[in-house]
Amino acid sequence: MTREEIESREDESMMDAPQINKPKPEEFFNVNYLRIYYGKRTLFPYSDIHKWLSYGHDGKHPGCDEYYFGRREFSFTLENDVYLRYKSFKNASSMEDAIRSHFPYKIDIGAVYSVDPDKRHAYSQTGSNVFTPVERELVFDIDITDYDDVRYCCSGADVCSKCWPLMTVAIKVIHTSLTEDFGFKHILWVFSGRRGVHCWVCDPKARRMTNEQRSAVAEYFRVYKGNENNARKVALMGYSLHPFLARSYVDYLKGFFEGELQATQSIFSTKDKYEKILAMISDEDIQSELRGKWENSARSSLSEEAISLVRWEQLKNTLQSKKHKAPTLRMCVEEIVFTFTYPRIDLEVSKQMNHLLKAPFCVHPKTGRVCVPIDPNNCDDFDPLAVPTLSQLIEEINSGGSRMDVDDDDDSDTSLLGKSIKFFRSSFLEPLLKSCKEEIESSYKTKIGKSKDSLSW
Amino acid sequence: MEVIRSQKRTASNDVVSNPKIPLYLTAPPLEVRLEEFELFAIDRLRVLKGVSDGLARGKNPKEMDDVVDALWKEHMRHSDASEMLNKDIISHFVIRLVYCRSDELKKWFLSMETALFRHRFRLRNFEAQRAIVGEFGLPYKAVTGAELESLKERLGQVVRSLGQISPSVVNDICCVSVCFFSFLSFAVEAVYYKVPFEEVPDLVAGRRVLIQKGHAFVAGSQLVSLVVTQFRSHISKALILTNRKWMTTIREREKDRLTPIVEALSTTYVGPDYSQSNDYADISLKDIDQVSKSSFPLCMRHLFEKLREDHHLKHGGRMQLGLFLKGVGLKLDDALAFWRAEFSKKVGSERFDKEYAYGIRHNYGKEGKRTDYTPYACQKIISSAPGVGDHHGCPYRHFSEDNLRAALGRMGLSSRGMEDVMDKVRNKHYQLACTLTFEAVYGTSCDVGINHPNQYFEESQKILKSKTPAAPV
Predict the structure, then answer these.
(1) Which pLDDT score, from 0 to 100, does residue A38 have?
(2) Which of A85, A128, A381, B437 is the most buried (most CB within 10 A)?
(3) In chain B, which among 207-226 make CB contacts under 8 A with chain A?
(4) B97 lies in which domain range?
(5) A204 has a pLDDT exceeding 80
(6) Residue B196 pairs with which residues in a beta bridge?
(7) Minimum CA–CA partner of A181 in chain B
(8) Are A48 and A147 within one domain?
(9) Known catalytic membership, residue A143
């Protein structure tokens, strides 16, 4: 399709889009919008995604594996829930062509396999040609619906400014651990489009981890072991916290619990709410003592938040003096804080190499929002309700304010999506590619036993 | 031959005093008599089967150390230390040949040999352990000097985070003295090794080590994790190579001599996996509610009840219950009808067909890579991790005491029976708890112990049918 043809088709669909005051679901997201989003070269960042997933194998160095990108699995979910797995592309333009012919509602990224996924049946299943994953980013998925038992402002698919901070805290805890404890350097955090975040750890070491090692990291992060069948969902054994948990508690969780969380959730202010917390204390006498204080407290002029804080102090003091009664009380205060604030990751997503995860810069079908990267060092500033939507992007194009050229390095690019793409490039992609190329070069040199730098980039 | 086996001198060499555990890196250049080929293998298989039984009964690591010690002494001991070593090595390689030939056999062999190695290692003293670590040729250095100083405080935190008193001691009057005793053993150890975290996944998963910048600091007493990972990885690779050699040369070459022995050895010891149900247990949809109350173990009954109640189950529950039902004899068409009938009430039959039917067909081996999946055994169910909204797992492990008592009450346990069961639960003997439940419900003893939900079902059906042969139970 030529540029003119695309633009004239866009004009048609613009004329068809009805003038509306109240947005109906189709106005967030529909096939026509998708055609524009994937059709124009200045929205979905095809070449950045291709560069990322090539990890430096751009064919310009003899140490490159030119088939690397082609062995990556993608999957498309189309309109009408048609699901296409094991798609793979030789290069950026075949990926672009495929997306532009299907206009998928969702694009998932899978693992890099031993052979091209779309040719897997051509190889026998024995010997050295077995179709098996060989590399895959270490990924995490945090979804706010897993916190429904501890958030009172929303439930289910909704998210608001009162409960989103749970995601912010989760990012801080996990990101610090990934960098400080595990030493990873190339980490991408992405908004999932509606109510959660994804994390992609792209270091070579991470990509080569086995399922067992991934499982180990996921279990290292796991604290919450709850469902409706047990009452004490966080059980911290031992005489102190593991240094990772201690650091998370001191640097992030305690402050969040005693500050922002009380303000937004007032977790002690009503009987229903505080009974849930009392159930976490494994001593009936202490429960009764506190219940007695709270049940009968007069209607004061204090705000919900202030009441919550007072009660929290009372709980802490009572537990402090009584903690030697039983081992299960030793870290009860910390357990309560962890129950309400500590990250709850979806273990299954992280454990297996062949698990597919939604691609960054996709659009979420239920909200129309783009899955943009989140800066972990400034995640307090991220607002999920201010993320650009498809319809906003299209309006921006119509009013002529879109980005002119996808390769423009001009700092004056102020388009809605431009900021995100810029961040993706400068904070994540460029450092990653630099390090990948160094690795390719050095392993090539080792392979051919050369000590002089006779081949440069 | 007879000569070797009939010589029953009182053995003066203990298994512990023979410090070497062979690593089975290369096949031994030894001559083996044909009789020994088979007999050594059978003895070792007895050991491996004993290990498997011990694990299935949920024995803790210390108990397993004793089990392995006893098994080894009984089956593998020899008065001559070097003969004992030879038998050890030869029998391993023979079994490796036998068990390399299918995925199922490989997995079992790998698990059992690794467990055997782990517990034999634990039985050695520290010096012997360090020697074995040395044999692996691992490049890991001990942490010393300023680096160790800078880590000391956090290493101490790790040690203290692991110290715990078991809940059963809580009400004990000597609780206080136990506290003190534990406190005394909270010192940071003398030797720590700096190791890439990938090498000790089980220590990472349990938060049993300090991790910094990709390195785990492994205490001397935790060395077992390090070597077991190495051992498992090596054996896993070796199995693949052995399989290749078997398929390409050995099987054909030895078809008149070793091959028949090898093939016979493998069928002897793989326990029933319940993937093919027998006549006892074919159930039909109309009987399923009744059968769930009369013959299902608690884990499956809970899932079944929740499914009827919520008209939905999350993935873990669908797998655990779905495969169990397959093992119980529910045919694919009946299974699809069953799940559709429930799920349609919540998500509609169209969405069921779109999103859930595929998974059921996949379980029966009709989709994807066509593996006919086997129902989960207790060990797998106990070690699963039910999360938010899940109902799978083992109730004896995953339920709170109150919920478990209520569930047991619904199964018809008396208060006396319940106390016995709860006692087992407190000591973490989940399968024994289930066995006691079985015994209480059916008024009979179950000596072998429950280690598979389908076993519970079949045993239950046997008992009920013997009481009322004609009526459906």
Answers:
(1) 94
(2) B437
(3) 207, 210-215
(4) 34-123+230-266
(5) yes
(6) B215
(7) B212
(8) yes
(9) yes
Residue B2: the pLDDT is 20
- Do both B330 and B460 map to the same domain? yes
Q: Which of A41, A79, A3, A19 is nearest to A395 (CA)?
A: A19
β-partners of residue A84 are: A76
- Smallest Cβ distance to A217: which of B204, B244, B399? B204
pLDDT, tens digit, 9 for 90 and up, residues B74-113: 888 887 888 888 889 989 998 998 888 888 788 889 999 9
Where is pLDDT greater, at B34 or A439?
Answer: A439
Q: Which of residues 178-207 of A touch B (CB under 8 A)?
A: 180-184, 205
Joined together, the tokens standing for residue B138 give 């691992």
Q: Could you tell me if A90 and A109 lie in one domain?
A: yes
Q: How many CB atoms lie within 10 A of CB B83?
A: 12
Strand partners, A74: A87, A109
Catalytic residue, chosen from A58, A73, A116, A334, is: A73
Phi and psi, residue B325, nearest 5°:
-65, -35
Please report whether residue B85 resides in a domain: yes
Structure-token pair, residue B213:
């910048």
CB atoms B204 and A220 under 8 Å: yes
Both B59 and B152 in one domain: the answer is: no
Report the residue from B158, B212, B386 with minimal CB separation from A227.
Answer: B386
User: pTM higher than 0.90 for the full model?
Assistant: no
SS3 B68: helix
Domain total of chain B: 3
Instruction: Please state the ipTM of this predicted complex.
Output: 0.87
Detail the residues of B annotated as belonging to a binding site.
299, 378, 394, 434
On whether both A320 and A353 belong to a single domain, the answer is no
Do the chains contact at A216 and B389, CB–CB below 8 Å? no
Q: How many A-B residue pairs are in contact by the CB < 8 A criterion? A: 113
Indicate the residue among A341, A361, A394 that finishes a domain. A341
Residue A182 lies in a domain: yes
Answer yes or no: are the C-beta atoms of B60 and B54 closer than 8 Å. Answer: no
- Element of type H or E holding A369: none
